[in-house]
Automatic annotation (TrEMBL):
Belongs to the D-isomer specific 2-hydroxyacid dehydrogenase family. PdxB subfamily. The active site is at residues 208, 237, 254. Residues 29-283 form the D-isomer specific 2-hydroxyacid dehydrogenase catalytic domain. Homodimer. This is Erythronate-4-phosphate dehydrogenase. It catalyses: 4-phospho-D-erythronate + NAD(+) = (R)-3-hydroxy-2-oxo-4-phosphooxybutanoate + NADH + H(+). Pfam families: 2-Hacid_dh, 2-Hacid_dh_C, DUF3410. The lineage of its organism: Bacteria, Pseudomonadati, Pseudomonadota, Gammaproteobacteria, Alteromonadales.
């Protein structure tokens, strides 16, 4: 079996050579000729899987993306061609949720009300939205969920309307990019929605750039209306609207999902799916590959006051991941497509909270921190 995989798939060289002849490619140099005689194509979001790319594929039996989003793949074309396709659904949900938690606490001083007294409107209650909800629960922060497709499918959780979600103190977007059908998300946050936002709201977009009308946001800011933005994703990546960057409280290069665990899980999920698809035994496990975090253990007395104040949560969370550092790196130099790609390619992947165990001592709210994701 010939397997062609994108070179940014973490630990791919530990997994795929066990299944056949495995070869890496770079998204910038792949051509249709590379697909000749290939059985399996594995990508991340940087390789658009189009009819043109597959035009010379003569024996393709499986396409997989080691990502949650699939808007870079022409899924209906694969269906027409009867080529099985799989995503790595949920692989980086925790990573994105932890990015959002880090951002909420990094920007907290901009707002008069403490985080615990604000409500988060989570738009899209799938893997990421649910992981975020669970972490907010742990911290005692209120949230509401908005997900009309899930509500229509009979999900039993309580949902609010999009309008209600957009009235929340903090709005966090976690939908796929959908351009058709009853619940499109392309420019879901458009000029009219932006106009309805108050000065004391925070809008976080860590799903897909095109869900927020970037030009409308810039126009509003340039007209002098305050808009508190945290943007990890941008329209037209990597050729983004650079003039929007200086207006953002936090701006990053589509790295919310880039924890070591999130990327590794993406690769390992595709490995498992390939084994199933071709009835092959699974001989490699992710657990055996992940290195120990540094530090791998924190003692609470060193980092926290005696309760979960905003400052103490920020202090702890930011020891593991402070999104402000990614913001500094993103804004340190002039941005263009090359720089955007460079930052993503050389991103020093962070660890998830679960990689760190807490020595909680007598800390009264330690259970909340384990629920937030830290290990015991
Ligand atoms: N910044 C980053 O690094 C990452 C970005 N993402 C993006 O986040 C998206 C969500 O990821 P997951 O939660 O894993 O996907 P998911 O498929 O588990 O959940 C998405 C949810 O959005 C809901 N939804 C769809 N249309 C909606 C609408 N119009 N209004 C409200 N809800 C709607 C769906 O019903 C679904 O429950 C991905 O599709 C991807 O585009 C995902 C991971 C990393
Ligand atoms: O999983 C997704 O969806 C994402 O947005 C990924 O985090 C994108 O990462 P790359 O595939 O661009 O490395």
């Amino acid at each position: 079996m010939k397997i062609l995989y994108e070179d940014s798939m973490l630990y791919a060289d530990a997994f795929f050579p066990k299944l056949g002849e495995a070869k890496a490619f770079s998204h910038q140099s792949i051509t249709p000729e590379h697909l000749i005689d290939v059985d399996v194509l594995l990508v991340r979001s940087t390789t658009p899987v189009t009819p043109a790319l597959l035009s010379k594929a003569n024996c393709l039996q499986f396409v997989g993306t080691a990502t949650a989003g699939a808007n870079h793949v022409d899924v209906s074309f694969l269906e027409q061609q009867r080529i099985p396709f799989s995503t790595a659904a949920g692989c980086n949900a925790i990573a994105v949720a932890e990015y959002v938690i880090s951002a909420i606490y990094a920007t907290r001083k901009k707002f008069a009300t403490p985080v615990r007294e604000r409500t988060v409107g989570i738009v899209g209650a799938g893997h990421v939205g649910t992981a975020l909800a669970s972490k907010l629960d742990a911290l005692g922060v209120n949230y509401v969920l908005c997900d009309p497709p899930l509500a229509a499918k009979g999900d039993k959780r309580e949902f609010v309307s999009f309008k209600q979600a957009m009235a929340c103190d903090i709005i966090s977007l976690h939908t796929p990019l959908v351009t058709q059908g009853p619940h499109p998300t392309h420019h879901m946050v458009n000029e009219a929605v932006l106009e309805s936002l108050r000065d004391d709201q925070l809008l976080i977009n860590a799903c897909r750039g095109e869900v927020l009308d970037n030009q409308a946001a810039l126009s509003r800011l340039e007209q002098g209306h305050p808009l508190n933005l945290v943007l990890d994703v941008w329209e037209n990546e990597p050729t983004i609207l650079t003039s929007l960057i200086p207006h953002c409280l936090i701006a990053t290069a589509h790295i919310a999902g880039h924890t070591l665990e999130g990327k590794a899980r993406g690769t390992s999920m595709l490995y498992q799916q390939l084994c199933q698809q071709f009835s092959l035994p699974e001989t490699v496990t992710l657990e055996a590959l992940l290195p120990e975090a540094n530090p791998s253990c924190l003692t609470l007395a060193d980092v926290l006051d005696n309760h979960l104040s905003d400052n103490s949560v920020a202090q702890l969370v930011h020891q593991i991941y402070n999104v402000e550092q990614d913001h500094q790196a993103f804004t340190a130099h002039a941005m263009d497509a090359e720089r955007f790609r460079y930052i993503r390619k050389h991103y020093a992947m962070r660890r998830e909270f679960s990689a760190v165990s807490l020595n909680a001592g007598n800390f009264s709210e330690s259970e909340a921190l384990y629920k937030l994701g830290f290990s015991r």
